Every structure is written in structure tokens, then in C-alpha cells.
Amino acid sequence: MRREARVGVVVEGGQRALNSSPGLTAQLQQQHTLQQQQSQIGTVSQLLAGGVAGALSKTCTAPLARLTILFQVQGMHSDVATLRKASIWNEASRIAGEEGFRAFWKGNLVTIAHRLPYSSVNFYAYERYKKLLQMIRGLENRRTNMSADLCVHFVGGGLAGITSASVTYPLDLIRTRLAAQTNVIYYRGIWHALHTIVKEEGILGLYKGLGATLLGVGPSIAISFSVYETLRTVWQSHRPHDSTVLVSLTCGSLSGIASSTATFPLDLVRRRKQLEGAGGRARVYTTGLFGTFGHIFQTEGVRGLYRGILPEYYKVVPGVGICFMTYETLKMLLADVSATS
């Protein structure tokens, strides 16, 4: 920021002096070109770091992510007695025995295809929204104020989450349907699923559950980024010499727990809405978002809204931690490469 400010001052001063010093034109143009190159490098670095971080964390935690999805959708086509017998160990054993060990990564290819652009847009949009919010009058002069910083991180994270989810939603829906398949294989891959959904349910079928997604992902990413940034700031202010990797991993894990706990019921409803009509099955929920909430609460109770929260915790602690750690590490590495090139 300081470097950009200095360049801006030089350009502004140079523009006023062009008539009296024509020789400055070439120098100013060169500085302007250099500034554009630096900005472009920064953008590419952020997109690359965000994409790789998201793909790596999702691949590492794919088995737990699939268990979470299977638990979340059990209430759609299962009776209460079956639900009471469900456990992480039993479900994991069933997958290994009936589908094989590789089935724990079922749908992971589309997960990576979704996560690369999703995480890239998410982290990049967050950095952009954060800079824009910091320029707002009243916040610009209060950057050292924790409440102002928290507001910037929360709002910026929420806007980034909504932006990235909207852009990549069809891939998220396809990933859910592939991961939710057990013994009966209806969708044979990404392109077959895409073609089948459009053919049977129309283009809008690719956006089933988008309302619940945006309602959930905004607060989820907002909480995740704000908790992460706040914890990291407090940690580094008290222990500035601790490893950046350790700080990012720990703060990222804690932020993941906070965001998952707060928004898990919305995520569960989102998954079930995404599976409406999948594989030719009849619709289960004929009402909107709040009607679906009410139906789950009446038939399954409060526990039904948090079905699958345990494997979600097992997944989110390493997953979000790895994501933030990888992102921060790659940003530093790519910044060093850009500086030396």
C-alpha cells in the first residue's frame, strides 16, 4: 500500500510537471507499467494461492466430507428407527465394505473442479472487498480499532462468500449428488450429471437450494474470516515470533468450528434441497426454505438439524486450518518469487 501511494504521488506530481519537463514522460510511463505489472502479479498470486489451498484442504478431508453429506441427507428417505442406529463407524464400515476404499473420495474430482474457482474467487474477492471497505469514511481513520476491523472482516467475508458461491454453484450441486450416491449409480460423472440434470429438471435444476446456500454461506464465510483475522491479530500481538504456519493452522481450525456450528442447519437444508428430484425420486419437501426447516424439525427434532455435525467437526478442524495455512504460505512464497523476478 505504501509503495502504491508513493507511485501515485509521483504520477500526480509528474502530471503537473509534464509541460515543463517533457523528459519525465517516459519515466512516468515506465513507472505506470511497472505498477500495472505488480498489480497483475498480485492478482494472479492471490487467485492461485486461494485455488490450491481450497483444493488441497478438500482432498485431505474428502472422506469426512462424504460422511457429513450422507448423514445430512439420511432423513430424506429413512425412517426414525434407521436414523437412531446410524453412527460414523457403521457408515464408514459400510462404505469400505460395499463400495471400496476409493469410494471415500467419490465426487472429489468435481469437488476440486468446484473448489479451485470457488476458493480463488473467495480469497480474491475478500481481499478486494476488504480494501474497498477500509476506504469508507469513518473506517479509514479507525484501522487500529478492533471493532472497525471486525466489521470490515465480517462484511468483506460475507460478500466474498456470496460472490464465490453464486459463481460456482452448479458444480457444488453436482458434487453433492455424486457424493450422495451409494449402491445405485444414477450419475456416471460430472458431464453426465450436468446433462441429466438439465434434461430432467431444466437449467434451474442446477440452482436448487441456492437460496439456502447464499443465506448460509454469507454468514459462514463472514464468521470464518472475521474469527480467523481477529484470532491471528491477537495471537501475533502477544507472540509475534511464533511460526506463521502454526498461527494460520490453529486460528483457521478455530474459525472453522465457529462458522460450522453457527450455520450447520442451513448447510443441511441446502444439501437436502440440492437432492430434491435426484435420480428420478419423488420430491420430499414441497415448501420453501422455512417450510423445509419446519418439516425437518417436526419429523426429526433439533437433532435432525445437526445431523452429521460430528464428522463435520472432524473435517472442518483440519480442513479450514489447512486451507488458511496453505493460502498464507503460498502468498508469501509467490510474493518472494515476484519480488526476485
Which percent range describes the beta-strand content? under 5%
**Topology, number of strands:** 0
Order of helices and strands: HHHHHHHHHHHHH
CATH class: Mainly Alpha
Number of domains: 1
Rg, Cα atoms, Å? 23 Å
The major β-sheet equals: none
General description of the model:
With 341 residues, the protein is mainly alpha-helical. It has one domain (61-340): Mitochondrial carrier domain (Mitochondrial carrier fold, Alpha/alpha barrel). 79% of the residues lie in helices and 0% in strands. It is built from 13 helices and no strands. It has helices spanning 2-17, 24-60, 62-72, 74-77, 80-85, 88-99, 108-134, 146-180, 190-201, 210-238, 244-274, 289-305, 309-340. Helix 3 packs antiparallel against helix 13, helix 8 crosses helix 10 and helix 10 (210-238) packs antiparallel against helix 11 (244-274). The longest helix is centred in the first third of the chain and has 37 residues, at 24-60. The chain starts with a helix and ends with a helix. Residues 1-28 and 30-41 have low confidence and may be disordered. Its main location: membrane. It comes from Quillaja saponaria (Soap bark tree).
Write the layout of secondary structure elements.
Layout: H1 2-17, H2 24-60, H3 62-72, H4 74-77, H5 80-85, H6 88-99, H7 108-134, H8 146-180, H9 190-201, H10 210-238, H11 244-274, H12 289-305, H13 309-340
